[in-house]
Amino acid sequence: MLLEIAVFNIESALLAANAGADRIELCENITEGGTTTSYGALKTVREKLAIPIFPMIRARGGDFLYSEDEFEAMKKDILLCKELGFEGLVTGILNSDGSVDMERTKQLVDLAYPMEVTFHRAFDRSKDPLQSLEDIIACGCQRILTSGQVPSAWDGKELIKQLVEQGGDRIIIIPGSGVNSGNVLQLAEYTGAKELHTSARIFVPSKMRYAKESMKENLQSVLVDEEEIKKMKKILKGK
Predict the structure, then answer these.
(1) What gap in Å lies between CA 64 and CA 48, rounded to an integer?
(2) Can you give the pTM of this predicted structure?
(3) pLDDT tens track, the chain, 239 positions
């Protein structure tokens, strides 16, 4: 049972690893659902952690239909991640009709080799999940991260189970979104998934002693909950 933790900053990556994360999904911009991390953060986390790290390759927030310039930027980011020695990456591209953009996805997979590729939750926005599964396998991806095409993986467990069964040993299906210590074991047992994904996020107040009241803003930041990660690891180890 492998537990992947999504992190959105350097401190969270270090905390997650310390709490026992098996793998890190590294990204930025939590409000956008995750985008590609800066070069400085990528290099810093890579230098400090020995566990597998999969950076997200996503040019921007919003939909998963990218311009040619955005696609070129994503390819450059993949080459950078390969140069820095990451074990894999997380990405996904759709066509405007909701199908998987197989041509571009395969280009990214080929460019990333020998890094592994997870097709992220762009999958949850695809039109036909079972056909998308086959298309993603054909592109050479090793994993699909999904909540079962609904906001919460627990609510999407029926589809996730179907995907696990259809994918068999051809691809790894990773349930993610809303996964926590209260449902992680039940979700794994019901779906047959061998890898689980969570952000285990908490929001912490700013450490600034001075705050400009006239700005009327809350400068809290997102971190991972170390105790929640440890609890999930203990539960999965018991399995």
Answers:
(1) 31
(2) 0.96
(3) 999 999 999 999 999 999 999 999 999 999 899 999 999 999 999 999 999 999 999 999 999 999 999 999 999 999 999 999 999 999 999 999 999 999 999 999 999 999 999 999 999 999 999 999 999 999 999 999 999 999 999 999 999 999 999 999 999 999 999 999 999 999 999 999 999 999 999 999 999 999 999 999 989 999 999 999 999 999 999 85
- Alpha carbon dihedral 49, 55, 61, 64, in 10-degree steps, equals -160
- Residue in this structure with the two tokens 């999940």, named with its chain if needed: 129
Query: Is the distance from CB of 140 to CB of 109 less than 8 angstroms?
Result: yes
Residue type, 122: A
CA dist., res. 58 & res. 66, Å (int): 9
Whether residue 35 contacts residue 57, with contact meaning beta carbons closer than 8 Å, is answered with no
Task: Calculate the alpha carbon distances from 154 to 2, 78, 132 in Å.
Answer: 18, 32, 21
How far is CA 6 from its chain centroid? 6
Domains of the chain: 2-206+213-238 (3.20.20.380)
Kindly report the backbone phi and psi dihedral angles of residue 198, in degrees, each rounded to the nearest multiple of 5, phi listed first: -155, 155
Q: What is the CA radius of gyration of the chain?
A: 18
